[in-house]
Specification:
The chain has 310 residues and is of the alpha+beta class. The chain has eleven helices and eleven strands. A six-stranded antiparallel beta sheet has the order 1-2-9-4-7-10, with helices on one face. Strands 6-5-8-3-11 form a five-stranded mixed beta sheet. Strand 1 and strand 2 form a beta hairpin.
Length: 310
């Protein structure tokens, strides 16, 4: 673990994120505690090699620390925080996309090569929603991470060996605790992932749950049950959470209350203001621009684009 921390710190000596030349791999470093922040996580595997992070989905907290990864298989509206970090003991980790070309090829190849047909092998485990969960990683995954990170700083090696090393990391993850959840990204959970992706792209438009059920090829009752099992939200609750999270990001970027409301699909700015206050315990106008207003510790604030590492 110390070797992995040293590799990440070597390439990221200051806090922030680094998009590496490896397909779908981003490093991140946090040097100070961060209160709860708003984000919409993309499908990804977020690996912690030092310290810990905490994410909240629909009021439930998930802690993932060194030796663990947060597996997100569909875009979800969450809040996240860093409980403890210092320049001497920063949070260090990396994000491996599940939407990259290499990831898609690896997951499909693993599905095709499987010999087990045991439904229990595809169970995500525990009582967490199938779209998000925390998994421990093993020695095979640790070794694969080290070999992949060793390529950084060697452009020719990245070009020649990079895709194979990323594939090796994903394969090790699929063979471990996160495997059922990752396989579900292109397996049994694909219908819900596709619907959630549709909502992410069309959240500003009028949404009908009956239409979503038809798109998924399910009855309304089955759709409601499977959607909540995947996301922890009822469909309309999910839409509202996505809209309010996106609006909070827009407000922090300088949008007016009316601009933010209409941009995320509200027809009434007053209704938007009521629901925003109910969600975040402060009116949208007080959310501030560029951090002019600091919310109380129990209230999340915006973090930036959804592509920020978990």
């Amino acid at each position: 673990m110390a070797d992995l921390s040293a590799l990440i710190a070597q390439h990221l000596p200051e806090p922030g994120t680094l998009d590496t030349p490896l397909d779908g791999v981003q490093l991140f470093r946090v040097d100070a505690p961060v209160p709860r922040v708003i984000a919409v996580y993309p499908p990804s595997l977020c690996v912690i090699v030092q310290q810990a992070k905490r994410v909240y989905l629909h009021g439930r907290a998930y802690v993932y620390e060194a030796g663990q990864a947060l597996c997100v298989t569909m875009p979800l509206p969450v809040e996240a925080e860093v409980p403890a970090a210092t320049p001497e003991a920063p949070v260090l980790g990396l994000l491996v996309s599940l939407e990259s070309r290499v990831a898609a090829e690896t997951i499909v190849a693993c599905q095709a090569a499987r010999t087990s047909t045991d439904p229990a092998a595809d169970a995500a485990g525990g009582d967490s929603p199938s779209g998000l969960g925390v998994a421990r990683w093993d020695r095979a995954f640790t070794d694969a991470l080290g070999r992949m990170l060793d390529l950084l700083g060697h452009p020719e090696a990245v070009r020649v060996l990079g895709p194979g090393r990323v594939r090796e990391v994903l394969y090790a993850a699929i063979q471990g605790e996160a495997g059922a959840r990752i396989r579900g990204h292109l397996g049994g959970g694909q219908e819900m992932a596709r619907i959630v992706g549709y909502l992410r792209d069309h959240v500003h438009e009028p949404i009908s749950v009956d239409d979503l059920a038809r798109r998924a090829g399910m009855s309304r009752a089955v759709f409601d049950r499977r959607f909540k099992a995947a996301t922890a939200y009822a469909p309309l609750q999910f839409v509202k959470a996505m809209r309010l999270n996106n609006a909070a990001l827009l407000l922090r970027q300088g949008a007016t209350v009316s601009e933010a409301a209409y941009a995320v699909g509200y027809a009434s700015a007053s209704q938007f203001s009521r629901e925003f206050r109910r969600q975040f315990a402060m009116p949208p106008r007080a959310w501030g621009r560029g951090g002019e207003v600091t919310p109380p510790p129990s209230v999340p604030f915006t973090s930036g684009p959804a592509t920020v590492a978990p």
